[in-house]
Amino acid sequence: MSISPSAVAALEVRDLKKTYPNGVEALKGISLRVEAGDFYALLGPNGAGKSTLIGVVSSLVNASSGEALVFGIPIRTRRSEAMQMIGLVPQELNFNLFEQPFQICINQAGFYGVPRKVAAERAEKYLKQLALWDKAFEVSRTLSGGMKRRLMIARAMMNEPRLLILDEPTAGVDIEIRRSMWKFIQGINAAGTTVILTTHYLEEAEQLCRNIAIIDHGRIIVDTAMKNLLGKLDVETFVLDLTDACIELPRVDGVKVTRVDEHTIEAEMSRAHDLNSLFAALSARGITVRSMRNKANRLEELFVRLIDANDKEQAA
Amino acid sequence: MNADGTLIALGTIVRREVTRILRIWSQTLLPPAITMTLYFVIFGSLIGRRVGEMAPGISYIEYLAPGLVMMSVIQNAYGNISSSFFGAKFQRFVEEMLVSPMPGWTILGGYVAGAVLRGLMVGLIVLGISLFFTKIHLYHPLITLSTFVLAATIFALLGFINAIYARKFDDIALIPTFVLTPLTYLGGVFYNVAQLPSPWKEISYANPILYMVNAFRYGLLDVSDISVGWAYAVMLGFVVVFGAFCLSLLRRGVGLRT
Question: Does B192 touch chain A (CB under 8 A)?
Answer without folding.
Answer: no
